[in-house]
Amino acid sequence: MLEFFIIFLFIFFVFCISELYQILGFRSTRKRQKIIIFSPDDGILRSMIIINFKDYDESTGENAVSLAKEFEKVFNETGVPIVVVVHPFDLRNVVEACPNLAVYCQTADGYTLDESHTKKKTQTGRITPIMLKKTGATGVILNHAENPLVDDEIERIVNDMNADFPEAQIVVCAGSSERAEAVSKRVEVAYIAIEPPDLIGGDISVTTRPEIIEEAVEKVGDNVLVGAGVKTAEDITKAKELGAKGVLLASGVIKPKDGGTPYESLIALTKAF
Fold first, then answer.
1. Which one of 103, 140, 182, 267 has the lowest number of neighbouring Cβ atoms within 10 Å?
2. DSSP 203
3. Would you give the DSSP letter of residue 106?
């Protein structure tokens, strides 16, 4: 009888410890550690697919979670590193629903400063590095053409991220190789993404202008991503041949025009890896 009582106490103890881990948030931390397998933190720049959810009806609110789950299935089935970039309002829900998926926020803010240029003790209405870390993001994109920043803002945000969320992966977007070079001289980030503004959301791929990619790689280095009009595995293969480490996608996979599903579109694109 005593042996059964001891076994019962042991099982109860294990259950209590498990529940305590969940309450304190250790479970979400463990999930993030799974995600960082394709972080460049170890000095290895890995090829990846980054999908910007933007503010499409198909990829915000409840749809953000269901779509992210479809993309997580692609990652689980193929092993190709996939990052989803979601609206700040959807960040927590997507992180919790997709433990094996890297989830970036679509933007971040630097801290509000006081008259002496010191960070204020409290912040209101800002997407700060601390809040991103608490929410479970693994990274952020900055200076997208639809949410541009000046270089001083980029530098301040990157510095704040490095101070309070150094493990975050930062992608800075640039519309030209010249802007990319200027940014790379001011900040050190995981990746710099080249997206010519006139091609964003269109049907003409940036890979049809190979000189843009080649020039960016020459000026910035091997941490270049490319986006704008990328919709096929052939586009991705061409971008990689030109020196890009990966691609940024949006409508081409979220709102495919060929009648297929986002899952089917993304599966087809992974054949380039």
1. 182
2. S
3. S
Tokens of 137: 């993001």
Residue 245's φ and ψ, nearest 5 degrees, are -90, -15
| Active-site residue list | 144, 195
Greatest extent of the chain over all pairs of C-alpha atoms, in Å:
79
CA distance 122 to 190: 28
User: What token pair was written down for 90?
Assistant: 């959807």
Question: Cα separation of 177 and 89, whole Å?
Answer: 32
Q: How does DSSP classify residue 21?
A: H
All structural domains of the chain, each given as residue ranges with its CATH number in brackets, are 39-272 (3.20.20.70)
CB of 82 closer than 8 Å to CB of 98:
no
The predicted-structure confidence for 234-269, as pLDDT tens digits, reads as follows 999 999 999 999 999 999 999 998 889 999 999 999
CA distance 241 to 233: 12
The kind and range of the H/E element at 105 are: strand 102-105
Helix axes of 262-269 and 233-241: crossing angle, nearest 10 degrees: 30
Looking at residues 134-149, what average pLDDT do you find? 96
Measured at the CA of 251, the angle between CA 250 and CA 253, to 5 degrees, comes to: 80
pLDDT, tens only, 108-133: 999 888 777 788 878 898 999 999 99
* d(C-alpha 269, C-alpha 235), whole Å: 9
How far apart, in whole angstroms, are the C-alpha atoms of residue 135 and residue 87? 12
Q: Could you give the CA distance from residue 159 to residue 137 in angstroms, rounded to a whole number?
A: 17
Cα separation, 207 vs 252, whole angstroms: 15
Closest Cα partner for 250 from 87, 36, 79, 47?
A: 87
DSSP count for the chain of H helices, then E strands: 11, 8
